[in-house]
């Protein structure tokens, strides 16, 4: 049996940790990309919507191919209907990216609101086992959903781009923290 100590530079996957400078470079590039996106969140929102649209079209085409390829497995009609829905949704997003962004943002607002309420209920039910963190997470989800829905449709033009920017910046900060951890372990 092989064991891996915490001092090993090889991870559980068997691959070595990336060099310090790669982690720092990746962190900086991601942070700069996030800041660039913050410079024009509307453009980033439209580009994200186009990407989601093309991805939905590709998924629909593959779903249709899969339906014909595995015709004897059953559910052929449902797979074809799902493929058509994917393709139609993707076409709407690609042809009308601004309207598509508004639709996606509205759905996101509703999902955040619903999931936030559910997490709050779970937090109350699990209060004795640290449920306060779930309650806080749910409260954040409800607030985010309300911000999106109360500012609708104007939020449809900046929310997706802003979320992308925040994700890029936080991902970059995570890589920098990982690089710092590598540096301190090496010293």
Automatic annotation (TrEMBL):
InterPro entries: Acid_resist_chaperone_HdeD, DUF308_memb. The chain crosses the membrane at residues 20-38, 44-69, 76-94, 100-118, 130-152, 158-180. Keywords: Membrane, Transmembrane, Transmembrane helix. GO terms for cellular component: plasma membrane. The keyword Membrane applies. It comes from the Bacteria. This is HdeD family acid-resistance protein. The lineage of its organism: Bacteria, Pseudomonadati, Pseudomonadota, Alphaproteobacteria, Hyphomicrobiales.
């Amino acid at each position: 049996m092989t064991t891996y100590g915490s001092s090993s530079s090889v991870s559980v996957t068997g691959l070595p940790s990336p060099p310090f400078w790669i982690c720092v470079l990746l962190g900086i590039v991601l942070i700069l990309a996030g800041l660039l996106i913050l410079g024009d969140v509307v453009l980033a929102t439209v580009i994200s919507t186009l990407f989601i649209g093309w991805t939905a079209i590709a998924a629909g085409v593959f779903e249709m191919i899969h339906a014909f390829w595995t015709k004897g497995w059953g559910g052929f009609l449902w797979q074809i209907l799902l493929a058509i829905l994917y393709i139609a949704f993707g076409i709407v997003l690609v042809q009308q990216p601004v309207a598509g962004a508004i639709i996606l943002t509205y759905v996101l607002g509703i999902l955040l609101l619903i999931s936030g309420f559910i997490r709050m209920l779970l937090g109350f039910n699990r209060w004795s086992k640290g449920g306060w963190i779930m309650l806080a997470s749910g409260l954040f989800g409800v607030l985010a959903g309300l911000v999106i829905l109360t500012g609708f449709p104007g939020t449809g033009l900046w929310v997706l781009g802003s979320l992308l920017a925040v994700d890029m910046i936080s991902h970059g900060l995570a890589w920098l923290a990982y690089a710092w951890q590598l540096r301190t372990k090496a010293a």
